[in-house]
Structure formats: C-alpha cells, structure tokens
Write a structure and sequence with these properties.
The protein is mainly α. Among the domains are: 105 residues, Tetratricopeptide repeat domain (Serine Threonine Protein Phosphatase 5, Tetratricopeptide repeat); 85 residues, Alpha Horseshoe (Serine Threonine Protein Phosphatase 5, Tetratricopeptide repeat). The chain is built from 27 helices and no strands. It is elongated.
Length: 481
C-alpha cells in the first residue's frame, strides 16, 4: 500500500523536522517529473525540505495534496515544515488532517502532541501522546515527548514510576539511544534516585560523548554532589560541543562560581555576545560574582527578586539576595540562605552564609553544627572559623572559643580584636594571668579608631584585674589551649 510505504519513508521526521528520508517515486522514462504526479511532487517537496528550502517544500506538498486530497504523508510533511516556519495553527490542522486520513499511524499523533506541549495545552498533549504509544509501543519519540511533558507538569510519583518502567524497556531494546537514556535518567532524578540517574547519564554519554543534554545533566548532578572537578569537565565539554551557546556558557560559569573559581566564571561570561550579556540571568550571576551582595542597591535586589521568580531553585541568586537582606530583613535572609544550602548542600559558600545568618538570628547552637561540618570539609575556611569562634563565645563555651580565636591569630596575627575576645574568655573562666597577658597584647596591637570601644573597656578592667593577679585570685591551674 502506497500510504504505508511512504509512512516508513518519512519515519525519521518525527525526531528532526528537517531530516527528510527520501522515497523512490515514479518518473518519466527520461527521469523528469510529471506535473500531475502527486508522488513525484511529494518527492520534490522532500528534496526541498531536506535542502532547507521550506517555503518551496510547503508549496510542493500543497500541490501534491491538491492532486490527491487524501494524502496523509504529504499532510504530515507539510505540517512539519510549517512548524519550522513557525506557522503553528496551520501545522496543527495539518497533523490533525493526517490523523483523520490515517488514524492508525502514530507519527502524526507524536508530532501533534509535541506541538500542543509547545502551545502549553498540556492535558490535550498528554492524551494525544499516550494514544501514540498505544498505537505503536515501538514509537520511542512519543515516549520521550511524554517524558518531557510529565516532568514539566510535575506528574505524580505513580505516573513517573510507570514512565520509568517503559523507559527501562526502551533503553534495553535495539532502538536504545542516548536520548532514551537521558529521558530515563531525568525520570530517575525526579524520583530522587541520583545513583541510578548518574548511571543513565553515563550510558548516554558512552553512546554519544558529544551529547550536550547528557553532559549538562551529568554536570549538574556532579556539581550538586560537590564533585566540581567532574562537573567542570562535563560543562566544558558541553560548552565546546554546543559552540559556546548561551545556556552552556551560563552553566559553566555557574559551576565555576560554585567551585569558588570566580575569575574563571567571569571570563566565561565575558566571552558571551553582547545580547547574551544583557540577559537577566547573566547580569544577576555577574553581580553575585563581582559585587558585594551585602551592599547591593534596591535596583539590584529587585532584579534578583524578579529572576528568582523564574529560577526559584537558583542557589547563587538565593545566596546573593540573602546577603543583601542580612540587615534589613534578617528572618528572610536566614530562609534564603537555608534554601541555597539545601539546594546545594556540598557548597560550603552557601552553608557558611546560612551559618552566619543563624548567628545573626542568635541561633548559635545550630550554627556551630553547620560550621563544624564545613570545617570537616574545608579545615582552612577562615570565615567558618571566625563564625565558629563567635558562636562558641556567645554560647559561653570559652575553652573551645579560645582555640578558634587562636587559630584565627595563627592565620592573621594582626587581628587585634581576637586578643580582646581571648582575654575576656579567660577572664570569664577566672584564668586571670592569661586574661591579663591577652588584654595587654590587645592594647599593644589595637587601632584607636577601629577598636576604641574595646580599648576603653580594657582600660577600665585592667586595674582591678592586676590587683586580682597580685592577690593570687582566680583559677589555681592555668588552662592549656
């Protein structure tokens, strides 16, 4: 049957509208086409379609349809070309006409379902794509489109699990390809099985090591686990394979930022074209890298808020906005930092910000737990040590606080205020000799303008403290730090 033959001839169009698989059409004995031969006109339309001459292709398909009104393959091809020309209402009519003429053919259902998804008519799209799968269980394109739709609609766990079972079958079949493995990995990720998702993305990249989508997904997954070296390797490969597209460049810059390589992140953003540099997400990331978020303007905050509505799980934006609200809205700042740390738990920058916000909220015990976890991973994190010293001091855990302040002094010997806190801690502990020595060191190093308040307090305390030391008061045995 001619229709069935042509259906097989154009099967690949469901995956790539410009990829036209040619058929063998009838010609005259001299090889020329006849003007009244719909099959030959259809063939010429495919040739034009494949060459990228879409308007000519549409014209030829329409001539073929005029000669043969019941020509589902020509309707399908014409609709595919119309999608690329962004003539979507006409394309929808074409796919529906192809379905009307050949209701058992699954490809028009698949194409129509993808178009309806693009038009945000999601419920209708789901019905159409599900029917495409019912007609042909080997139609992988319909399964992949249904996967994308279900993820976008945040389908129930039950639906996602059912899709996963189908995708497992697809990835184990002869038709398995990188796209099927990416879809499987995406569903596994949505079901919170990161180990399985990582294995699926690995398989996709094994099949196609230039697959940008697979590289992007694995880069994100690795970054979320704190494997920034592996994440950067994938992000660089994705950026190279996509010829430095805006989306892959932005991802690369984001991962550089997460890895603490701000200079590399800025260089990546600088390489974007001028139009891309003006995009809100690029501007927001650059601001978070080059500006002090804590001193951002009202305009900056408004721009970040607007972008967060589009990207509510962008940890970098959450952290930057949290920093900007530290003094004006401490409660919201704390919540923003908490969200950033929850989204990227391996990112110590966000965790440190969260701990600082907890300290500002005087939730010192919670801050200590987070800061000790950070220091277990980054033992030389100065900000974490500084915040831990403060939290321990406020909790009156003075021996541990003194240890932390001493660590800070070993790193920055001119940090005069650390001697003040060490001195007061010893004073609270009743270790007066040690307190006196620390107070005197503080006075010798303190800056009159920066530390005047502390200097005044020490000068008031010293006479009495010296008398206590002379009388032998205080702890009988010095504390070993």
């Amino acid at each position: 049957m001619l229709s069935r033959f042509l259906a097989h001839a154009i099967i690949f169009l469901s995956l790539a509208p410009l990829c036209v698989y040619p058929i063998h059409a009838q010609t005259n004995s001299d090889g020329s086409a006849t003007e009244d031969d719909p099959v030959q006109l259809f063939q010429q339309g495919q040739d034009a379609h494949e060459a990228g001459d879409l308007k000519r292709a549409v014209e030829l398909y329409e001539r073929a349809i005029k000669l043969r009104p019941e020509f589902p393959e020509a309707e399908y091809q014409r609709a595919s070309a119309l999608i690329t020309l962004n003539r979507l209402p006409e394309a929808e009519k074409g796919f529906r006409r192809a379905i009307e003429l050949q209701p058992e053919w699954s490809l028009p259902y698949t194409a129509l379902g993808k178009l309806l998804t693009r038009l945000e008519r999601f419920d209708e799209a789901e019905t159409i794509l599900s029917h495409a799968r019912e007609l042909d269980k080997e139609n992988i394109a319909a399964l992949l489109a249904l996967t994308d739709l279900s993820l976008h609609m945040k389908a129930s766990r039950e639906k996602l699990q059912a899709l996963l079972e189908e995708l497992k079958g697809a990835t184990e079949s002869r038709q398995s390809n990188a796209s099927a493995w990416i879809a499987r990995g995406s569903i596994e990720l949505a079901l919170e099985n990161k180990t399985a998702a990582a294995a699926s993305f690995d398989r996709a990249i094994l099949l196609d090591n230039q697959n940008v989508a697979a590289l992007i997904e694995r880069a994100k997954l690795r970054a979320s686990a704190g494997n920034y070296e592996g994440a950067l390797e994938d992000a660089v490969a994705a950026n190279r394979a996509s010829h430095s597209s805006m989306s892959t460049s932005l991802l690369l810059a984001q991962i550089y930022a997460q890895a603490g390589k701000a200079d590399e992140a800025v260089k990546t953003l600088d390489a974007l074209d001028e139009a891309s540099k003006r995009l809100p997400e690029v501007v927001a990331l650059r601001n978070s890298l080059q500006k002090d978020c804590g001193n951002s303007t009202a305009e900056d905050r408004a721009a970040t808020e607007a972008l967060l509505k589009k990207e509510p799980r962008n940890a970098s934006l959450l952290s930057c906005l949290g920093a900007s609200l530290r003094t004006s809205d401490a409660a919201r700042s704390l919540e923003l930092y908490r969200q950033a740390a929850e989204i990227e738990p391996a990112n110590t920058h966000y965790a440190t910000g969260y701990a600082a916000a907890l300290i500002q909220a005087r939730r010192f015990a919670e801050a200590v737990i987070i800061l000790r976890r950070i220091l277990a991973v980054e033992p030389n994190n100065f900000v974490a040590h500084s915040n831990l010293a403060t939290a321990l001091y406020e909790l009156k855990q003075f021996p541990d606080a003194i240890n932390e302040f001493n660590w800070l002094l070993a790193t920055k010997p001119d940090l005069a205020v650390a001697y003040y806190f060490i001195a007061t801690a010893y004073d609270f502990l009743g270790e007066y000799k040690e307190a006196l020595a620390a107070y005197e060191t503080f006075l010798a190093k303190a800056d009159a303008q920066t530390n005047q308040l502390e200097i005044d307090k020490v000068n008031l305390r010293l006479p009495g403290l010296r008398n206590q030391v002379k009388r032998g008061e205080g702890a009988k045995k010095g504390r070993k730090s």
